[in-house]
């Protein structure tokens, strides 16, 4: 089973201004604190020329999960996530992948950020290999990812304006 997703967010500043944020480790630490306090952490950050690789651990409390998820996987969820971004001229491209620890659920996708003001476009798929309820869980994952991407965008705008 697999469900495709597309999501986009826009920023009130340029790609280069966004790159100046995402290419610093402190940004990622602040972002996790702003969007996943108490459940998240940065496991590693690497800046290698025009490439940033961030490995984080995020979490979702059981109280925030749909019943279809908690019926299959009770308790809080721990979600290791890897994001890679590459600056290429006037554009940032990248990828993201995440999985739910202890469950057959993962999500992966591509990122393209371009324009002035910058627009980030995400596309990918969620895969949950659980018979009968996998599709419902994939939809819940995609919904949560959309909320997270929106929250990360909002925090990024606040950081830039703050």
Automatic annotation (TrEMBL):
Which InterPro entries has this protein been placed in?
Answer: DUF2505
Alphabetical list of Pfam families matching this protein:
DUF2505
Q: What is this protein called?
A: DUF2505 domain-containing protein
Gene source species: Gordonia sihwensis NBRC 108236
